[in-house]
Design a protein that fits this description.
- By secondary structure, the chain is an alpha/beta fold.
- The protein folds into three domains: 2-216, NAD(P)-binding Rossmann-like Domain (Rossmann fold), CATH 3.40.50.720; 225-312, N-(1-d-carboxylethyl)-l-norvaline Dehydrogenase, domain 2 (Orthogonal Bundle); 314-447, 3-Layer(aba) Sandwich (Rossmann fold).
- The chain has 19 helices and 14 strands.
- The strands form three sheets. It has a six-stranded parallel beta sheet, with helices on both faces. The protein has a six-stranded parallel beta sheet with strand order 11-10-9-12-13-14. A two-stranded parallel sheet has the order 7-8.
- Helix 19 (436-441) links the parallel strand 13 (426-429) and strand 14.
- Helix 1 (10-21) packs across helix 3 (51-61), helix 10 packs across helix 12 and helix 12 packs antiparallel against helix 13.
- The longest helix is centred in the middle third of the chain and has 32 residues, at 218-249.
- The radius of gyration is 24 Å and the shape is elongated.
- The N and C termini lie far apart (53 Å).
- Bound molecules: nicotinamide-adenine-dinucleotide.
- Nicotinamide-adenine-dinucleotide (NAD) binds next to helix 1 and helix 5.
- Nicotinamide-adenine-dinucleotide binds at residues 6-12, 29-32, 35, 83-86, 98, 101-102, 123-124, 160, 162, 164, 280-281.
């Protein structure tokens, strides 16, 4: 099928590349000229395992191209994905101005009475945005085509559930595909588009049953995305709260999580206690849902509590450092990891940023080592932190280390050699990622979260 993807960030680029790999003809549109230049040269602007290779092979086959020309994309696409950012506004509401600009742009480039097209909201948008996008597309069309016959199109909500760090894998191995629309023709085109994924053509385990397709109305599909992220964020906040109680009563939250996670009604995923959730989705999606609830006269108390537990959790590492080092002024703290989770270069709302800001405020010097940030030199607006090129240089003259991101590489660092370089071998394990007994045997004062 002919596909146009508008916005080539973590979602848009992965979607475009995976659809091209599935046999579709894809044009990716982005208004960032630098990004488009980079992608045309065969390089991915983001770090995502497996993405560059797949992108290059699709380019060689001629099934994907990159452009800044929205008109060309709209002309090409029988299915058009809107995959631009919806960042949070200061009041928690979702900033939909990029979606609005794209919807208007699509409208002004549609041709009246032409072939039926599907406009897909892939961006996470506030509930009710499906009808709003339709209205903006029509406004854009009417402004550009006075008196022309109406274009034929439908809006579908197709929320994205990929996880950064395993986005390509998740796209080919989804737990479900959610399609929100009342128009049968649009739904059948979407099912045709996803057929190779639904039938697990590119899945690791081809024996698995077909991917379930959940068909809903527009608003319910939009709600599915928010409710899923709010649930996962609340689950993490729940286990973090249990960890804080464990810390006080002397229980081990790792054992407790195993004990409750084996209950199939609860499940073991998202039960790892630590220094809190972050990233580009959970914080903004939970805030947006709280905001929407408020707009409609409902106070989402449970979600507000999940946010407030999370805000407190980010300060836990500071409390533990103060308890170990007492005065932080004049001390040097080394952060192991900067990105909000492993296998991504994404720093949006990463707990490391809160730590850097608070440690600086308390007069400590902050150093960091991150497998991606240190190697690529990508700084993503980082300031007040010395980014070191290897773990030994990080440990050198540190009064404490804080493990912030559970990169797999951090399991096998030479912690013995690092301890010898430190002023004081203190390890605050913000992800309960290391073996306490082993760390203590290497001479560390080891402190986890709730253990
Ligand atoms: N990142 C994730 O893990 C994830 C997961 C699920 C859903 N989402 C949702 O998907 C959406 C996109 O997220 P993302 O992380 O990919 O965003 P991103 O910020 O990484 O990418 C957005 C892209 O859109 C481009 N863009 C902005 N305005 C444009 C315009 N007018 N025309 C063309 N291109 C334009 C930007 O240049 C950028 O490349 C958001 O709504 C987000 O909430 C993200």
């Amino acid at each position: 099928m002919r596909v146009c993807v508008i916005g080539t960030g973590y979602v848009g680029l992965v979607t475009g590349v995976c659809l091209a790999h599935s046999g579709h003809q894809v044009i990716c549109v982005d208004n960032n000229e630098e990004k488009v230049k980079l992608m045309r040269s065969g390089q991915s602007p983001i770090y995502e395992p497996g993405l560059s290779e797949l992108m290059q092979s699709s380019m060689q086959k001629g099934s994907i191209e990159f452009t800044t020309d929205l008109a060309a994309g709209v002309d090409h696409g029988e299915i058009m994905f809107i995959a631009v950012g919806t960042p949070p506004l200061p009041n928690g509401e979702s900033d939909t101005r990029y979606v609005e600009a794209v919807a208007r742009g699509i409208g002004s480039n549609l041709k009246g009475g032409s072939e039926f097209k599907v406009i897909v909201n892939k961006s996470t948008v506030p509930i009710g945005s499906g009808d709003w996008v339709r209205m903006i597309v029509m406004d854009g069309f009417n402004e550009a085509n006075e008196g022309a016959s109406e274009p034929s199109f439908a809006v579908v909500s197709n929320p994205e559930f990929l996880r950064e760090g395993s986005a390509v894998h998740d796209t080919f191995n989804p737990d479900r595909i959610v399609l929100g629309s009342n128009e049968a023709q649009a739904l059948s085109m979407m099912e045709k588009l996803y057929q190779p994924i639904i039938t697990r053509e590119f899945a690791e385990d081809k024996e698995l049953p077909q991917v379930p397709v959940v068909k809903t109305d527009l608003s319910s599909a939009e709600m599915v995305k928010y409710a899923a992220n709010a649930f996962l964020a609340t689950k993490i906040s729940f286990v973090n709260e249990v960890a804080n109680i464990c810390d006080r009563v002397g229980a081990d939250v790792v054992q407790v999580a195993q004990g409750i996670g084996l209950d199939s009604r609860i499940g073991g995923k998202f039960l790892q206690a630590g220094i809190g959730w972050g990233g580009s989705c959970f914080p903004k999606d939970v805030s947006a849902l709280i905001h929407t609830a408020n707009d409609y006269g409902y106070e989402a108390q449970l979600m507000k509590s999940a946010v407030s537990v999370n805000q407190h959790q980010r300060t836990i590492a500071i409390e533990k450092l103060q308890s170990e080092l007492k005065i932080l002024k004049g001390k040097t703290v080394g952060l192991l990891g900067l990105t909000f989770k492993p296998d991504t270069d994404d720093m949006r709302d990463a707990p490391a940023l809160t730590l850097i800001e608070q440690l600086n405020r308390l007069g400590a010097k902050v150093k960091a080592y991150d497998p991606i940030v240190s190697q690529t030199g990508m700084r993503h607006g980082l300031s007040n932190v010395y980014v070191e090129t290897d773990p030994e240089r990080l440990a050198d003259s540190c009064d404490a280390l804080v493990l912030v991101t559970d990169w797999s590489q951090f399991k096998t660092l030479d912690y013995g050699a690092m301890a010898k370089l430190m002023n004081m071998p203190v390890m605050i394990d913000g992800r309960n990622f290391l073996d306490p007994t082993e760390m203590r045997s290497l001479g560390y004062r080891y402190v986890g979260v709730g253990r």
